Amino acid sequence: MDLKLAKLWFERGGTYGDKECHNGLGIIWRDGLLDGRKDSKAALTHFAIAAGLDLAEAQVNLGKHHYGKHLGTL
Question: Angle 19-31/40-52 helices, nearest 10 degrees?
Answer without folding.
Answer: 160
